[in-house]
Structure formats: structure tokens, C-alpha cells
Design brief:
Strand content: 25-35%
Strand order of the largest sheet: 4-1-6-5-8
CATH architecture of the largest domain: Alpha-Beta Complex
Number of helices: 6
Structural class: alpha/beta
Number of domains: 2
Helix content: 25-40%
CATH class of the largest domain: Alpha Beta
Order of helices and strands: HHHEEEEHEHEEHE
Largest sheet: 5 strands, mixed
Oligomer: single chain
Shape: elongated
CATH superfamily of the largest domain: Nucleoside Triphosphate Pyrophosphohydrolase
Radius of gyration: 19 Å
Distance between the termini: 14 Å
């Protein structure tokens, strides 16, 4: 069964979004004070339930402006001619494996962002062929996170380049479905998500998964 965020996290996240939207559109100084108080309350709720200092949470929330929407994460499921999938080791997560990806960039489409992340993290040039899935991070079973997030997965073809590591990536590898690494970066990708990319590779007619 998919993991559900604890009630306090959903409430605090909603309070933060209400405050952010209110601060974006309000004109009355007294309303601004009220929304700032709501934002601080949300920060206090997060800090009380986590190890993060209150000041850090407050600064994180203060940096969020405009209408509150989910964050957009992109993942590239790149396959070679041997039906192996491309994966990279993240140095920031204890050397765990994941599909290349990250936050979508401004002025880039989600498909362009996926190809860009694959190149930067693996050294390989890829071409997105299909939007395989648009998944809500929480409904998929990822660990609770401060902000809501949508994850876009693209099946991609390998078109060039060669393996290259960086300060963010310690290793680049290709894996058959039976050999998917056990030590995955579960904040970024889940085993069933990787297996689902193999299913889309085998049957390109599958509809895009969502939710």
C-alpha cells in the first residue's frame, strides 16, 4: 500500500501554501501580518517534528514566492541496444543508485530538462521518446518531504556520449532488469518505478502512468 504522509505534515504543508499564496496577492498590511504568522506556524510545526532548526525552515519558506504549486522532478530512463537501463550513483545520498534526473529548469521543457540532467549526470546524450509516467511523490510511497512534488519519467534513447563522473556522481552503470541495484536512492526513485520503465521499454504502446 502506498505510504501516506502523516497528518501533521499535510496540515503544515497546506498552511505554508496558504501563507505563500496569501502573501503573493494580499495588499492589506494587517492581512500580510496574518499570513506571515501562518507561515511561521507552519515552520514551527515542521521544526517540532523534525531535526531541522526552526531558522532553516523559516528561511526555506520565506524563499518560496508566487502561487504555490508542486515542485517538478524529471527522470530519464535511458536504454541501450542491449535493453539495459542507465543509472548513476549520487554522492549526496551515501553513494546510492538512481535514474539520472533532478529539478526541472526554467525555460526548459520537462523533456529537455530530462535530457539535460542525463547528460550532466552521466555524460551520455539522450533523446526523450515517451512520457512514461507523471507520479505524485507521496502517492508513490517516497518518504515524506517538505514540499509537494510531481515526478516526470521519460523513456529515452541513447544517441551519443560516454560515461563521465563528477562531484555529484561517483559512478555510471548499465543494468538489466534482473540486476537493478538494491541500494537505490529511494528519495529519488523506487524499485517499482524502475521496473515500470522496463515495461514501457518492452511495450511502447502502454499509456502514460499517472498519480
Amino acid at each position: 500500500m502506498p505510504m501516506k504522509d502523516p497528518d501533521w505534515l499535510e496540515w503544515a504543508r497546506e498552511l505554508q501554501a496558504i501563507a505563500q499564496i496569501g502573501l503573493t496577492f494580499c495588499r492589506d498590511p494587517y492581512d500580510r501580518e496574518r499570513y506571515e504568522a501562518i507561515r511561521q506556524l507552519a515552520a514551527r510545526m515542521f521544526a517540532a517534528r523534525t531535526d531541522a532548526p526552526l531558522e532553516r525552515i523559516e528561511a526555506l519558506f520565506a524563499g518560496e514566492t508566487g502561487y504555490a504549486t508542486p515542485k517538478v522532478d524529471v527522470r530519464a530512463a535511458v536504454f541501450d541496444d542491449d535493453d539495459r537501463i542507465l543509472m548513476v550513483r549520487e554522492t549526496s545520498d551515501g553513494g546510492r543508485w538512481t535514474l539520472p534526473g533532478g529539478w526541472a529548469d526554467v525555460n526548459w521543457t520537462v523533456a529537455q530538462s530530462a535530457a539535460k540532467e542525463a547528460l550532466e549526470e552521466s555524460g551520455f546524450k539522450v533523446e526523450p521518446l515517451k512520457l512514461a509516467a507523471v507520479w505524485d511523490r507521496t502517492k508513490q510511497g517516497h518518504a515524506p518531504h517538505v514540499f509537494s512534488c510531481c515526478k516526470f519519467f521519460f523513456v529515452c534513447a541513447l544517441i551519443g556520449g560516454r560515461a563521465a563522473t563528477s562531484h555529484e556522481i561517483s559512478e555510471v552503470g548499465w543494468f538489466h532488469e534482473a540486476d537493478i541495484p538494491a541500494d537505490l536512492s529511494l528519495e529519488r526513485v523506487l524499485p517499482q518505478q524502475v521496473r515500470r520503465m522496463f515495461a514501457h521499454r518492452r511495450d511502447p504502446s502502454l499509456p502514460t502512468d499517472f498519480d
